[in-house]
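We treat protein structure as text, and this decision shapes the records that our systems exchange. Because each token names a local backbone shape, the row as a whole describes the fold. For reference, a complete record is included directly beneath this paragraph.
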Amino acid sequence: MTSAYGSPPLLEVQNLQVSAGLPREKIIVSDFTAEFYPAEITGIIGESGSGKTLTTQAFARLRRDIKVTAQTLRFGDSDLM
């Protein structure tokens, strides 16, 4: 897919799932899908504690204490999985 400006997504996320906890793993975020395009402003909104920060940290792999799975997690031409 392309944006209104004709460019491909800068960040593409399909079916992201974030989980944490040992010994019993708990799913914190599930089925998150989004495309982020250059020159567009996007916001992620939700209630306090709904997983907004954790989701964005999962994109960048900033936390080692969480498990991240996704059908697609791509930044430009780089596969982040």
Notes: The CA atoms of residues 29 and 53 lie 11 Å apart. The beta strands are 11-20, 26-36, 67-69, 72-75, 78-79. The first strand starts at residue 11 and ends at 20.
